[in-house]
Design a protein that fits this description.
Chain lengths: 421, 138
């Protein structure tokens, strides 16, 4: 058994709060009804649905609980937002504007639409991952029917200038869809201040259950259903509602709203401690995305450690009880580095050595100190196994992070030995 | 060890306790190759005496299965003649490791390529041995 268990992958999942679990329990057993039924069993859960809708409406500062739609998860919400708005506005136009660092559920939905005759402009980001609102403005044409920009980047934590983009979209009369998967529960959420016509998030990112996604949609934004069946969710999403998860998610949202200032302060302090500690302890390590502060979400760090690969780091950390994620190609099933790291122009060698650490409310100072010490040992071990570390010591290749001005670049060296020109 | 593992026990063992890690200062052949697909890099060094591989070492920049593949490949080829080693196949690594996930088979291919590159380096330095051994076309 490792001496300590530290969960640093809160962007993938969080444990359900005891209060949330308690609130869900009756809806598995005695309150098992279907919300579409007209008898007592149905009416009881219909009330529970309405209450959750009100909790989520308050959570995002929506005008009305009728603007809240339940789906199965973030991916379905993104599919519904992108395809639903595109299909509903086909007479008006066929052009979409999205940022280059959106989640795959957004980018792949757009790609699907392109095969059907829609067109899309992918707005690039700068080296820290920021979208320039002027670029969004320039990308909009008279055929544009939707603008989609996430609030916070899932991989590198960049906080986008959403309110500015919202203003541009409003001036042009085009709905703005905001993917808030990486931010909901960890940042104040106000769809009116953002100028968002659509916004989606998942409670399992903030101590709610998996199996439910929430899509906010202002009634002025036209939306066609992409799932065909019964008339649930105002005809916008057919299928029996996952009542226990919706109820639990509503409670998680209420608690997240109540505890938000404390959660932000806590994670921001640990984020600072973790990054300062890693930087001081490990040479040739780099942060992707903005420095901890106003441009970055308080929960995550995206680090690249030079001359070693990310999957090995992840697996060795796991044997020490530390759970993290990675954007390295070796971790991906497609053998490609994270498209976000590509979009910010990160050197491939650094993308290979990538880890994503995401903090939660229950992490402690001791956790952070344990991670720093443990990781330093792992880096040393993997470097002792790496031919690239040797090549750097011998001056054959140079460091990307702190160049010494001698030797080839890692990329040149890798291309030479892999037979690529 | 943890309760659940991404790879099977054998692969995890070779990743966590790699055999033949390092370099050979008096190597007779050194091969370094990179995988175009993922970006991993592997280096194998060989000590060859009387046409037989006496010792092998590896260094790898890559994932757990790349490290395990190179560890296993160096284990397997020690004691083989150069001629035998020239027909070494990645499948031997996969079998000896008790299987690799489909997306990780290319790691074993990289180990085979690093070994072949080291053998070719040896034959370049010792052309008198080459006529006897058919160097496969790349």
């Amino acid at each position: 058994m490792p001496p300590r268990r530290v969960f640093l992958d809160h962007l993938s999942a969080t444990p359900v709060l005891p209060e949330v679990f308690e609130a869900m329990k009756p809806y598995f057993t005695e309150a098992f009804g279907n919300a579409s039924s007209l008898h007592q069993h149905g009416l009881r859960v219909r009330d529970a649905l309405l209450k959750a809708r009100e909790q989520f409406a308050a959570f995002v500062h929506a005008e009305s609980p009728d603007d809240i739609f339940f789906t199965s998860d973030g991916t379905e919400s993104a599919n519904l937002a992108i395809k639903g708005v595109a299909y509903a506005n086909q007479r008006k136009g066929n052009h979409l504007v999205v940022s280059a660092t959106e989640h795959p559920s957004v980018l792949n939905s757009v790609e699907f639409l392109e095969k059907q005759g829609f067109s899309c402009t992918r707005v690039p980001v700068d080296r820290q991952g920021f979208v320039n609102p002027a670029d969004v403005h320039a990308a909009i044409t008279d055929k544009t029917v939707l603008v989609a920009v996430h609030q916070v980047n899932h991989d590198i934590g960049t906080l986008q200038p959403i309110a500015e983009i919202g203003k541009i979209a409003a001036e042009k009369g085009i709905p703005l869809y905001v993917d808030a998967e990486a931010s909901a529960g960890w940042l104040p959420m106000d769809v009116q201040a953002m100028g968002a016509s659509l916004l989606s998030f998942s409670p399992h990112k903030f101590y709610g259950p998996k199996g439910v996604g929430v899509l906010y949609r202002h009634r002025r934004a036209r939306l066609l259903s992409i799932l065909h069946g019964g008339v649930q969710e105002g005809g916008r999403r057919a299928g029996t509602e996952n009542i226990p998860a919706i109820v639990g998610g509503g409670v998680a949202a209420e608690i997240a709203q109540r505890d938000l200032p404390g959660r932000i302060t806590h994670t921001a302090r640990l984020q600072r401690r973790l990054w300062d500690g890693l930087k001081a302890r490990i040479p040739y390590i780099q942060l992707s995305g903005p420095e901890p502060g106003p441009g970055r979400i308080s929960t995550s760090l995206n680090i690249s450690t030079e001359f070693i690969e990310g999957e090995g780091q992840l697996l060795l950390l796991d044997t020490k009880g530390i759970a993290v994620a990675s954007g390295s190609s070796c971790v991906s099933k497609s053998l490609k580095i994270s498209h976000v790291l590509g979009a910010i122009g990160l050197d491939h060698a650094l993308a290979q050595g990538n880890l994503i650490l995401s903090l939660g409310k229950d992490n402690t100072d001791e956790d952070v100190d344990y991670v720093i010490e443990t990781f330093a040992g792992i880096v040393e071990k993997l470097r002792s196994m790496s031919p690239m570390w040797d090549a750097f010591q011998m001056g054959i290749i140079d460091s990307v992070i702190s160049p010494r001005g001698q030797g080839k670049s890692f990329a040149e060296h890798a291309a030479a030995v892999s037979g690529k020109k | 060890m943890s309760d659940y593992t991404l790879y099977n026990e054998k692969v995890m063992d070779h990743f966590l306790n790699p055999r033949n890690l390092g370099d050979l200062s008096d190597a007779d052949g050194v091969g370094e190759v990179g995988a175009a697909a993922c970006g991993d890099i592997m280096k194998i060094s060989l000590k060859i005496k009387d046409g037989r591989i006496e010792d092998a070492r590896f260094k790898t920049f890559g994932c757990g299965s790349a490290i395990a593949s190179s560890s296993m490949a160096t284990e397997l080829i020690k004691g083989r003649t150069v001629e035998e080693a020239m027909s070494f196949s990645n499948q031997e690594v996969v079998n000896a490791l008790g299987g690799l996930p489909p997306v990780k088979i290319h790691c074993s291919v990289l180990a085979e390529e690093a070994l072949k590159a080291a053998l070719e380096d040896y034959l370049r330095k010792h052309p008198e041995k080459a006529p006897k051994i058919l160097v496969p076309a790349k």
